[in-house]
Amino acid sequence: MKATQSLAKFFPILQWLPQYQKKTFAGDLSASLIVAVLLIPQSLAYALLAGLPPQAGIYASILPLVVYAFFASSMVQSVGPMAISAVMTASALAPLAVMGSAEYSALAASLALLSGLFLAALGLLRLGFITQLLSHPVINGFTSGAAILIIIGQTTPLLGAQDHTLLHVIIHQPHHLLFGLTCLALLWLLGQPLNTLLLNKKVPHAQLIAKLSPLFLILLITAAVHGLNIQTRLIGPFPGQLPAFAWPDLHPDQLARLWLPAITIGLAGFLQSITIAQSLALKARRNIDSNQELIGLGAANIAAAASGGFPVSGGFSRTAVNAASGAHTPLAGVMTAAWIALAAHWFSDYLALLPQALLAATIILVAIRLIDFDFLIRSWRYDWRDGAAFISTAIAVLLLGAMQGIVAGTGVSLILFLYRSSQPHIAVVGRIAGTEHFRNINRFTTQTCPAVVAIRIDESLYFGNSAKIQAELIQILAQAPAAKHLLLILSAVNSIDYSAMQAISLLQENLRVRQIKIHLAEVKGPVMDHLRRSEMLSTLDGEVFLSAHLAMQTLSGVSEDFSI
């Protein structure tokens, strides 16, 4: 019984598939068709964005969806190629091989394999908490910076300037420029403006219609290009057969160059995936197992590597469309993969007729939605350090590239965190009259005792802030000439490392000359466990009190009131 439960926990498909009902099939089927129609042009565009042949995008959209269905804890997550993963792939591989070459494709598959193994290992070891090292300001800053890079990179295919300068295109080939800008304008009009109009008119299924309208426009523009013989660059022919399954041949020197990009791509992709998965699960009153999602996304990337693809992740718009279209289970993803495989096999000749400018316009509009200036404003208002992490990450991405940018952003975020924790808030507190509550004397009217200086430290104590705290305590005591007792209220302290413990002991030695005793109050159990194993308690001249109120009663020599 336990073995069956463990197996079902590792393979969530064993939980929902036996309970699958006919009434959910219609929703899964309709969602699979809609997502397939959405994913096919996107997968082609993202493959080109990654510097790969268009079929790589198709390959990354078949087997990964099937494999993910076996491991996923999310019922509606839709995985596949993403703009951010594509640009990170291109950034990682451009220095290593020629874009579009067989070596480049092999390296892309190797990158997916390493990323998948890393994510799966995190999930199996229940180390999902490590992904929290990438904060939301860093992720949003990286996404915004990468989106700007994507937009800049796609202006060339949009305006038909692959082989010439933009000035040459404007003078000698203005029809390329006009065609690209027309595609961009029409796709934009059929996006948010159409959605707003349909919602205002209260049209049924307004959001779904708005999502699908650009896809019908793509078909219409493609037909017009060939019907009117418009001169523009096309995707061109590509193999229509299903992917051949083979493991990438990963050499030690490639491993040394790819392991860091693989980890970065994996973490960035997972954080995007888990964000949308948790949001939709919350609305549906379901639970998401982050470790299981790591395993599922890792398995999907391994499948992408085995089928000639490149790194994949969950997509915001794709998953939202999947849920809005009626998907109930991961079987919708399996059926989506089947539709894509059929389309790639039977309609590859038609897909090859898609104009590159049209796909570039699609990517640009997706990238524009990824630029989150609202988040920057909100985070800066809340705490300038979070806003600084966003800005520094975005600038690093623009100046250094996607891979180096997210590493730099993470480093800046950790430095700001260390700076924040190294400058802890320290408050001199007094008692609120008639209560047992102690508050900051600068914020409240309180009762204090001249002989007792009560201080609350609002941060865990460690080597990075122990000297700062020690200096501030000495400064506070210098302004209290009548002080005989220093009461440290540790209610907000979750840990004290060895360096901080020694700093407190040294402070007691220095204060002994002034006949000032150090006392502790409201020490948490885990902190006390560590202090008992050290010499600190034996070096203090004072006592350890259960509460600040009890300490003040004892040290002030009165049972109720203190002098003000």
UniProtKB/TrEMBL annotation:
TM stretches of this protein: 29-50, 56-72, 79-98, 104-125, 137-156, 176-200, 212-230, 258-282, 294-313, 325-344, 351-371, 391-419
Pfam family, one: STAS
Gene3D superfamilies: STAS domain (3.30.750.24)
Principal location: membrane
Keyword field: Membrane, Transmembrane, Transmembrane helix
PANTHER family noted in UniProt: SULFATE TRANSPORTER
Protein name (database record): STAS domain-containing protein
Organism encoding this protein: Iodobacter violaceini
